[in-house]
């Protein structure tokens, strides 16, 4: 299959990676002990509704709760309320969801159990402006962060210092109940405190760290937001806070596990596979150029890997917006990659977000090969101009190479798969 239909092969690799993060499989392996009191389920993220449905199916006992997910990502639940809200820019639905989550965990006892189902995307889905800040302020911050090119770790450190729910604050609100967080990681390095800006998992990053990141990445934020971050009111609870002493955190799915599954699937089909890293960060177009250079070296000189070979990588790149084109980090990565392998035969690639959505459009990513740039030119599309204008979606749409699997129900970062035949 790999040699006769590269797109079908690469699609099967993506499906294997997503299957390894399937909610029913991962939730069942990490069920907590039943409490003496109530079981409350809360959650946020692009995979939270599927996690909630899986938890309902696996939990043998009474439960109730609420989770928030992206529009179009809902799953059918009987006992857990599912709310849909906006991503990647917050909206009023998310604001109401955040309030409801805080209300749901208030007034609990030490005999109660709170199960937090957390996945990537929760940062935007749980706007909860702190102090005198407003939803408009949080939207402005989010838009500035998305355009900054800052890594996700920096963005989430800043987000938690303007929030009333992130940075462990949701877990603190549940005290004295025990909180068990089941986390699907979309963060390079799999630090659970950074997934969805850690609503139930505190970390040691301080507002001084947030201010340093704002300066490092030259992020322009509203004056009232800066005033808040410069005040003691922005301080988030620390991991040593006794309110977190009984809590547990489990990363139940990650890019590393999914990449291993993708590699196993490829080897089963007779294709040797190498994994570069599960935690690659950096500007999408620059990472695309580096991957293209590696693929060229294999294709032309049969080094550092012998062909045929599948080259995999994961992580989360960033895009510094220079224009207002259509795209996402995976399609931008792949357009730079396509430019880097232009004219070379025997190279096929897929770059896609494992949640099924790349950026603001309906595609997860795209396919590319050595003929991509020439085919774009044939449609009147200048690939380099499209890259310069952050318009990768338009470029791939012109040649019919967008990858549109639909929402997958999970989110373990980006998958980049490059087949050198």
Automatic annotation (TrEMBL):
InterPro entries: GK-like_C_sf, GK_N_sf, MOFRL, MOFRL_assoc_dom, MOFRL_protein. Residues 310-414 form the MOFRL domain. GO terms for molecular function: hydroxypyruvate reductase [NAD(P)H] activity. Residues 10-229 form the MOFRL-associated domain. Its EC number is 1.1.1.81. The keyword Oxidoreductase applies. SUPFAM superfamilies: GckA/TtuD-like. It comes from the Bacteria. It is an enzyme of class 1 (oxidoreductase). Keywords: Oxidoreductase. This is Hydroxypyruvate reductase. It comes from Aminobacter niigataensis.
